Amino acid sequence: MRLPRLSPTAYRRVVIVALAALVLITVTGAAVRLTGSGLGCPTWPSCEPDSFTPHTASDTHGMIEWINRQITGLVAVPTLAAVVGARRRRPYRRDLFRTSLGLPAWVAANAVVGAMVVELDLSPVSVIAHFLLSLGAIGNAVVLLARASVDDAVAPGAGPGPAAAVRRRRQGTPTVVSLCRLLLVAAGLVLVTGTLVTGSGPHAGDDRADRLPLDVHEVVRFHGIAMVLFLTLTLVIVRLAARGDAAPEVGRRLHVLLVVLVGQAAIGYWQYFAGVPALLVGFHVFGATLVWIAVLQVWLGLTVWEPAPVPDVEAAAAGPVTAAPARATTV
After folding, report:
1. What is the Cα 128 distance to its own chain's centre?
2. Distance between CA atoms of 26 and 30, rounded to whole angstroms?
3. Exposure string (b/e) for 22-60, b if CB count within 10 Å is 16 or more?
4. 214 Cβ contact partners less than 8 Å away, ≥ 6 residues apart
5. Quick one: average pLDDT of 50-74?
6. What is the pLDDT of residues 80-98, one digit of tens each?
7. What is the pTM of this model?
8. Residue 75, phi then psi, degrees to nearest 5
């Protein structure tokens, strides 16, 4: 059976589904830990040593962990669809196919780390690696979606033949571009310190799991400082964009990031002063994925591709134009 060809619009929809699935599995994975079900299935890939599923449906922790594993398997479907779809997309683009290969690779790597998480009894370092790999997969999907949204006529290295004559144009001043690089670093710092809060906080996923040997209040304070710096830097760039240092589309993406950041900060402070309830932590994890997507969108929006100027072939062949010598005139 020959698979149908996909239009550029249809392929973008496939990538959006893959991105949504990767966000979903990140949140459901956090839900496993927040419900204390991290070791609900003590073995991997089977749930019990002698059974693929929990022994009884009344085993709540076992069922939660087992269902999450099935969701992980389902997530592999849209990521593979993104790869197959890149091959069936017309016109075919090499850059999309190569970028799409990363999606199932991230999922496979995370499945291996997931097995290690179980074998290591929810070691905080392994759980942190599990989450960061999820963010890596989400980042890959965001980049793929951005590339799939570029017009085929100006996509660099799009076709099987020679690359089209295109050039990259920045959508912001050098100052804005440099500050947006710092914004990526600040986002990474916030996300990593957030995982340290998780690794030293109360939601271990199981009573048998170890915690990082860190003072959780000190880690929270450091995470909060990183968040304030991130928010401040965002406000500075928003101000520069408003005065014309960046294109309107970049300004729009910056405002989306600002809204997400304010919401994420509000949930973070709320959960801290409320005693870190599991439900709010789950929303905070979801917010972290949105922050990551939003900051990547800002960075990717700083670059547009456009046709390169076509040189005047006839003028180039004729050589440089020289001015004719002035003729002397007599009165």
Report:
1. 16
2. 6
3. bbebbebbbbbbbbbbbbbbeebeebeeeeeebeeeebe
4. 196, 199, 200
5. 90
6. 999 999 999 999 999 999 9
7. 0.89
8. -65, -30
